[in-house]
Specification:
Elements: H1 27-44, H2 48-61, H3 71-76, H4 78-86, E1 92-93, H5 108-121, H6 136-139, H7 147-150, H8 159-168, E2 175-177, H9 183-195, E3 201-207, E4 222-232, E5 237-241, E6 256-260, H10 261-268, E7 272-274
Antiparallel strand pairs: 1-4, 2-7, 3-4, 3-7, 4-5, 5-6
């Protein structure tokens, strides 16, 4: 398969499944969504104590979600983290973002997942599952995203979440279906992940012929994985890394781009996000 061609009819390595994909609702994801909503709401009015109380209620029940920034991100974002308690920032970004391009036409999932992990956990962060070094072919193997086995990183199978969690040796990431969420809730998920945990958010998108596309993608049916590393204008804009920039069939796409949350949601709501 030529590197620029991807999946016939879908391109880049995800799938544009039918709308009846699962919403992945669980007690844990519901609790996490509720906690994030309360945390961001309280932080924006300067009530950091109430924000922390809401967070503690959730992580005491689900300790997998109680992650702190890696040493590298903690050092890089020390100034913004220190200011967050006193004044919630209108914009915040992970440091030293890795916007890795996908090495072939079906590796948007492995490329985005590893770019996020290299950014938040360290460039040399090897797999806690099988010890492999951070190469896309290793993230695509059966122990992680299973991209090679299925020929894509499907949203409906939860492969991206599985791969990232297995690589990191944690159960931090949960999957949220667009059918149970919204553009505003997604924006809050990015704000919490970046500002509190110094983590990225995986985003599964679908683009249809003749309908909205983003980051100068071609007018084709595209199922695609990208990841969010920051926000600006009080969460109205999301900043993302797009692995398709390395493909010959995406000549105008940029490694990093920003987009209004409501505009992006047009391409997210059929699938969802992983936070």
């Amino acid at each position: 398969m030529p590197a620029g061609d991807g999946i016939d009819g879908n391109w880049t390595g995800s799938r544009a499944e039918a709308a009846e994909t699962p919403d992945f609702t669980s007690a844990r994801s519901t609790s996490k969504r509720k906690m994030i909503d309360e945390w961001v709401t309280q932080m924006k009015v300067g009530n950091s104590e109430a924000a922390e109380r809401a967070r503690r209620v959730h992580v005491e029940k689900y300790p997998d979600d109680d992650e702190r920034p890696s040493a590298a991100q903690a050092r890089a974002t020390a100034s913004t983290s220190a200011n967050a308690v006193a004044a919630y920032p209108a914009s915040d970004f992970l440091a030293d973002v890795r916007a890795d391009g996908q090495v072939n036409g079906i590796y948007c999932g492995p490329a985005s997942g590893l770019g996020m992990i290299k950014t938040q956990d360290g460039v040399g962060f090897h797999s806690r599952k099988d010890g492999n070094l951070p190469y896309q072919v290793h993230m695509a193997n059966y122990e992680h995203m299973q991209t090679d086995y299925y020929g894509a990183t499907d949203w409906a199978r939860g492969q991206w979440r599985r791969g990232v969690n297995n690589w990191r040796g944690t159960n931090y990431y949960t999957q949220v279906g667009g059918s149970v969420s919204s553009a505003y809730e997604f924006s809050k998920a990015v704000q919490y992940a970046v500002n509190h945990d110094s983590k990225g958010v995986g985003v599964s998108t679908v683009e249809y012929v003749g309908k909205p596309h983003y980051n100068e993608h071609p007018n084709r049916l595209i199922g695609h994985w990208i990841w969010a590393y920051g926000f600006s204008q009080d969460g109205a804009y999301t900043h993302l890394a797009d692995p398709a920039h390395s493909l010959a069939t995406f000549p105008d796409s940029q490694p990093r781009f920003s987009i209004g949350r409501s505009t992006l949601w047009l391409n997210v709501e059929e699938h969802g996000y992983v936070n």
